[in-house]
Write a structure and sequence with these properties.
This protein is mostly helical and 106 residues long. It is 93% helix and 0% strand. The radius of gyration is 33 Å and the shape is elongated. 0% of the residues are buried.
Amino acid sequence: MGKRNKLWKGIIIGAAIGASISLLDQETRKMLVENGKRVKNKLKDPVHIAKNVNRHVHKCRQSLEQLSEDISFIAGKIKEINEKTPEVIEFVKETFIRRKDDDSQL
């Protein structure tokens, strides 16, 4: 159990050092402050967040319904092909035999 704790401790220390080094860059600090302000402003309006989540859920649901319809359509076409394949094979055999008979008559 001690080795696992050392692993997580090392990961956390490494992440903290990496974050500290990246904050030496002025652009990174500005971006972090701007993102923090955006998050803070969005959290002030939970109704807006709920509407966005509902909109995204609705879009996902529509996409899944369309995907389901497409899969059903494709499955139907595959079933049709499987049903017609023996007929097509028989037709090709008959055509080949007729052609062979016609060629032999010449």
